[in-house]
Amino acid sequence: MIQSRPRTPLGYLPILLPAFALFAFYVVPFGSMVGMSFFHNLGGGAYEEVFTLENYARLFSPFFLSVLATSFEVAFLVALFAIVVGFPFTYLLVNARRGTQVFWLIVMLSVLSLSEAIIGFAWSTLLSRTAGIGVLFEALGLTEKAQSYAPSLGAVLAGVTYIAMPYAVLLLYPILSRIEPDIEQASRTLGASPLRAFFNVIVPMHRTPIVVSFVMIFVFTLGSYLLPQILGRPTNWTLSVVISDQALLQSNMPFAAALSIFLMTVTILLVLLVTLMNRKGAKA
């Protein structure tokens, strides 16, 4: 493809508006947040514009280290569950009839159209003591009486995985759709069972897309905000919930900005990792 640069300054006009919008709505707010993260908090929503690292030093306190550990734990487990369930499901989906594929893809897109609040309260009702799983377990004799399974870490993982699953399927679907049928037929000809062909041929072939999808779902889950509040205890809250608490309830904007910068830095590093892995996968 031949690329040519504009010969006069007027040729750059079409990109000036998007460049200005990017600068005004992204660079300026982000720069303000970076600057505020180094200010000294005075309490009551006021802060002093003096350079200090105290907000970043607080990230290493036991409380916030536990919040960071919880955020990474939730993101890691959700990404793991979504890939472990989503990869075989997507593989079966691409080998199903066209009508079945369309049906399940519509179902996945429908899940993404739901509000997180609706999903959170639906799971809260399903895991409550008076309805759903608790009553079912009591009726089956698995428990002596109905129990409540929310709020808990398990409830948070169930709710966030429910949202992450469609992303896993939609990420893996175009990749698995390109599998040549001859590959599986060749392994079957050599005597491998369908299950063995899946684990010994299909999965190793797609190690890079699996890892890339895992990292992308990890990044997506790292910003979970509403479901941890609805389905979890305060000990299960993620970093996004703490950022909101510091900004809206504690009125500590400098520390909320420092937490946001930290979360964004982690996200950018993970995106760079995904980009690097994609390039290596393309060269392989």
Automatic annotation (TrEMBL):
Cellular compartment(s): Cell membrane
PROSITE patterns per UniProt: ABC_TM1 (PS50928)
Iron found in the keyword field: no
Ranges that cross the membrane: 12-39, 59-90, 102-123, 153-176, 197-227, 255-276
Origin: domain of life: Bacteria
One Gene Ontology term from the biological process aspect of the record: transmembrane transport
Membrane topology term: Multi-pass membrane protein
Keywords tagged on the record: Cell membrane, Membrane, Transmembrane, Transmembrane helix, Transport
Record-linked InterPro entries: MetI-like, MetI-like_sf
ABC transmembrane type-1 domain: residues covered: 68-274
GO cellular component: plasma membrane
Database matches in CDD domains: TM_PBP2
Similarity-based family: Belongs to the binding-protein-dependent transport system permease family. CysTW subfamily.
The protein's name in its UniProt record: ABC transporter permease
Lineage: Bacteria, Pseudomonadati, Pseudomonadota, Alphaproteobacteria, Rhodobacterales
